[in-house]
Specification:
Strands 6-7-8-3-9-10 form a 6-stranded mixed beta sheet, with helices on both faces. Strands 2-1-4-5 form a 4-stranded antiparallel beta sheet. The protein contains 8 helices and 10 strands. 34% of the residues lie in helices and 24% in strands. It is α/β, with parallel strands linked by helices. A hairpin with a 7-residue loop joins strand 1 (6-17) and strand 2. The chain starts with 5 loop residues before the first strand and ends in a 13-residue tail after the last helix. Helix 4 (115-128) crosses helix 5. The chain folds into 2 domains: 1-84 and 161-268, Rossmann fold (3-Layer(aba) Sandwich); 92-159, no CATH class. It binds adenosine-5'-triphosphate. Adenosine-5'-triphosphate binds at residues 17-18, 25, 27, 45, 47-53, 220. It holds the Pfam family ABC_tran. Residues 8-242 form the ABC transporter domain. This is NitT/TauT family transport system ATP-binding protein. It comes from Catenuloplanes atrovinosus. GO terms for molecular function: ATP binding; ATP hydrolysis activity.
């Protein structure tokens, strides 16, 4: 069976917390978003605009109040049961008493994979994020950036078609963050993973994404979608005119200024 070309589809999605009760909050309203297989989408917007809520809906950690969420062509619930996605959040969330290798093995263990296969797959993932030499270490022996890489390796260990990331690099210094951005892009390209990546950083969104989805709060909704066509990211990408144009456009969209239609990076 071939995998569906659409990785994620949100259609007419509203999310109201505490509906009909005190403290009712409309976290999301009228959200339509379609993400293609292998596409990298960054979600950006001010605090409280519903970015995490959107991610949690896709992960089926919460249910929409109305509308539908489809992942890999199936209802979000089915996709969760089939482990169609991996999750990495700001806190790496590693188990301190397990070695790095055994942390990465965990989702495979939960899926019932045999020991030999788990070892091989986890080793391969650690290789991918450049941590093969740290397999026997414990999380406390690693830096914050290394722990994040372990979390990414763990999220990718089941070879999920979709990766959900909520500010995974938020707590890291700028240099580590830029290195991990490159590693993430390399890993996603190598594994053809689709990604939804929540960030507060405009340059990070522009550098990583094929499309930047801009959201605004009260009620949370999508107010702009900016395609980024910077081609393969290299050393010079962060200094390129297209990169700065992208940043300007995302900033304008966040401020609610109208964004010209043409694609970022296409002008030269
Ligand atoms: N479990 C919940 N119960 C009630 N309200 C909630 C719940 N989760 C989120 N909200 C509300 O929904 C809105 C969107 O929250 P969400 O965490 O999705 O925003 P966000 O864009 O991710 O914010 P941040 O950038 O600060 O992480 C906020 O007003 C928040 O208070």
């Amino acid at each position: 069976m071939t995998a569906p070309e659409t990785a994620v589809e949100l259609s007419g999605v509203d999310k109201i917390f505490n509906q009909g009760r005190a403290g009712e909050v409309t976290a999301l309203t009228g959200v339509d978003l379609s993400i293609a297989r292998g596409e990298f989408v960054a979600l950006i917007g001010p605090s409280g605009c519903g970015k995490s809520t959107l991610l949690r809906l896709v992960a089926d950690l919460i249910e929409p109040s109305s509308g539908t969420v489809t992942v890999a062509g199936k209802p979000a619930r089915r996709a969760r049961l089939d482990q169609e996605y991996g999750i990495a959040f700001q806190q790496a969330g590693l188990f301190e008493w397990r070695t790095v290798l055994r942390n990465v093995e965990l989702p495979l263990e939960l899926r019932g994979h045999g020991r030999k296969e788990r070892r091989a797959r986890a080793g391969e993932m650690l290789e991918l994020v450049g941590l093969a030499d740290f397999a026997r270490h414990y999380p406390a022996q690693l830096s914050g950036g290394m722990q994040q890489r372990v979390a990414i390796a763990r999220a990718l260990a089941v070879h999920p078609p979709l990766l959900l990331m909520d500010e995974p690099f938020g707590a890291l210094d700028e240099m580590t963050r830029e290195r991990l951005q490159d590693e993430l892009l390399r890993v996603c390209a190598a594994t053809r993973t689709s990604t939804i990546f929540v960030t507060h950083s405009i340059p990070e969104a522009v550098y990583l994404a094929d499309r930047v989805v801009v959201m605004s709060p009260r009620p949370g909704r999508i107010t702009g979608v900016i395609p980024i066509e910077l081609g393969e990211r290299t050393e010079s990408t962060r200094q390129s005119p297209g990169f700065f144009t992208g940043i300007t456009k995302v900033r304008a969209a966040l401020r609610g200024t109208r964004v010209p239609e043409e694609t970022v990076g296409a002008e030269r």
